Amino acid sequence: MIFLSKGYVAFILHAHLPFVRHPEHDDVLEEKWLFEAISETYIPLINVFESLLDEGVDFRVTMSLTPPLLSMLSDPLLQKRYLTYLEKLIELTEKEMERTRNKPEFHRLAEMYHKKYKSDMYIFKDKYHCNLIKAFKAIQNTGKLETIACAATHGFLPLMNTSAESITAQVSIGVNTHEKFFGKKPKGMWLPECGYIPAIEKPLKENGIEYTILESHGIMYANPRPVFGTYAPIVTPNGVVAFGRDVETSKQVWSSKEGYPGDFDYREFYRDIGYDLDYNYIKDYICNDGQRTYTGIKYYSITGKGNDKAPYDPDRAKNKADVHATDFLRNREKQVEYLHGKMDRPPVIVCPYDAELFGHWWYEGPYWLYSLFKKIHHDQAAFKLITLSEYIHENPIMQVSAPCASTWGHKGYNEFWLNDRNDWIYRHLNKAAERMVELADENMFAQGIKRNALNQAARELLLAQSSDWAFIMKAGTMSQYAIKRVNDHISRFSRLYHDIKENSIDERWLKDVEEKDNIFPEIDYRVYCSKKKKVNG
Amino acid sequence: MSEVYLQKEGFMPSGYGDSQITLLARDPYWLYAYWELSPESKDAFIRDFGLELWEKSVPALKVTNISKNESFFVRINDFSDSWYINVNDPNCLYVAELGRKVSERFFISIANSNYVSTPGCSVSSNTAAYFINYNDLKNGLAGIKTPNDINISVLKTCQVFDLNFKLSDMAGSSSETLIK
């Protein structure tokens, strides 16, 4: 390959939602997280990638789709419920077009949403037969998108340090799930919340993972000091390649104060008709229990810092996104130019973001990506986009250095997941992990109903370990739901533990729980066997 | 405390009947310890040392910095089952013991924790740079190269990356940053 560019930019999109599936109820508010993300992020991103492909734009992006998200996207019940969600939104936008017919500034927006949801229906139902994973897989197969794995239930690995088996299980189930859905073994793994401790390296290596991504200071504070900072990966003493997040590009996109998404021309997230309109008008389109929720239909721009908001102007917003794409591009050109003069290899600027930023939190985000990738392809030659595997392949000489334990959470370590709002969960999670190892070691050759119970115990533990619950408890939104989830999974696990130990498994109850918490159908509880047991057999 | 469970959703045990202490690292300067003291352990203490010693002693954690061979006590109380512990040293290995403190020099340990390391929080002073060919590593031909001419020039440019890098420059994670 002839290398003319002076450096590279690597975009990583991390797509994740916690596993939320409640067959026991008809209308669950929390299931809407998935439906919103499908309409606001995943379909728009698929549209962006497909448009770029159709237009012959050369781009590269690395993406993780976590096992809980993959499980939900492939679940027939949730697929059916998403269709119902869309049908209601299409109906609502028809009513909105009628309601706003004399207000042109809102009417055109109602029309915009109506067109959008009808398009979503076509893409989801007709084009991809209700399974969007097919779309990502097809894009992966073009070579422009590299998909990487993530831990089984996005468990927060740094606080699992008392159970090596827990970390191993999260990693290996994550890798197996990725292979199941994408048809190939992943080379990289996204660590949940970029949560890294040295103990994670061995399970990564044992499961064939070549690289991961750390928060900036995970690299900058590595020992010995990384000569190239975050602009080249390091290889850890255990042989895992670690890339570091770039500080500059993080702020430009992430920050609600300084970043692009806070621009006054962009759509205001919090002014949604689910809250703005008369209750009797909107009640059929929010939750069955009468609680107001977001519909996704929003008519105002951020406008300014106060509460007065102007009607959203999509053309103005699109122009602003183009301006911001150019701004990002020019800044990267300068950055690469500067770094190129200092390094003996091409720098790589690593830009990881939550996928849901694009479209859900920042409505114009997908278009910004589209505009940016086109500009990168057409308007400059200083740098190219690259996947992380490609960078490793082209630049195999790396510094050996031990990263620093770190996360990309507030203050850079574990505090967001360990504080007075959520610290109570860890005694239960760690005890359950200890017991799962005990059960696995004592029942290495279980069959029949006992095997089913052991597998379900493993599922309950994994679901309890989702980092999302601790995060939500700290963030304070929907914390009752998060508390309930931890309680439910730990109590189910505890019951299974005792039932297995006492050989008194309630088959009907077990079947009910298997139906509710049906993630990882092929799970093998023996992933929790201790090393000692595996060696001794 | 024996564990009790009910055939009911959402019931969490108040305890597991163990005498155990677990240590977690929150950040470079804070640890979190949680523990449980079973009635059997208390009975065993009293049997071995007498009720008077139990009543005269106070519950405490003895926290040891293994890396520096230093320790200190944290006075707790009989109603607490967790504690945030302020430590002085990042990048150190710690262990904690749950026990009874009779005097400054007399501590009776009841349970020992796991080992945990506090993360680092500064750029390393070690500037020795070693490089490896990752392909050799992948193919099982690993050998670490000693610093060579390239490395020397790189070491000179090392200062370029010793920027005014502060953790406060971090943008913070995803939704947490955007949630207003």
Describe this protein's structure.
The complex is a heterodimer of chains A (537) and B (180). With 537 residues, chain A is an alpha/beta fold. Chain A has 2 domains: 7-32 and 40-68 and 132-258 and 315-411, Glycoside hydrolase 38, N terminal domain (7-stranded beta/alpha barrel); 418-530, immunoglobulin/albumin-binding domain-like (Up-down Bundle). Chain A is built from 20 helices and 10 strands. In chain A, helix 7 links the parallel strand 4 (188-190) and strand 5 (211-214). In chain A, helix 17 (467-475) packs antiparallel against helix 18. The longest helix of chain A has 27 residues, at 314-340. The mean pLDDT of chain A is 95. In chain B, strands 3, 4, 6, 7 and 8 form a 5-stranded antiparallel beta sheet that branches. In chain B, a hairpin with a 5-residue loop joins strand 6 (93-101) and strand 7 (107-112). The longest helix of chain B has 11 residues, at 39-49. The two termini of chain B are 43 Å apart. Strand 10 (397-400) of chain A pairs antiparallel with strand 9 of chain B, so a sheet runs across the interface.
Give the SSE map:
The complex is a heterodimer of chains A (537) and B (180).
Chain A lengths: L6 E9 L16 H23 L6 E5 L1 H7 L2 H24 L4 H24 L5 H8 L4 E6 L13 H19 L5 E3 L10 H6 L4 E4 L1 H5 L13 E2 L5 E4 L2 H8 L18 H4 L2 H4 L31 H27 L7 E7 L10 H14 L4 E3 L2 H7 L2 E4 L24 H18 L5 H17 L2 H9 L3 H23 L5 H10 L14 H6 L1
Parallel strand pairs in A: 1-2, 1-8, 1-9, 2-3, 3-4, 4-5, 5-7, 6-10
Antiparallel strand pairs in A: 6-7
Helix pairs in contact in A: 1-13, 3-4, 12-13, 15-16, 15-18, 16-18, 16-19, 17-18
Chain B lengths: L19 E8 L2 E7 L2 H11 L1 H6 L1 E8 L4 E6 L6 E5 L6 E9 L5 E6 L3 E2 L13 E3 H5 L10 H9 L16 H5 L2
Antiparallel strand pairs in B: 1-2, 2-5, 3-4, 3-6, 6-7, 6-8
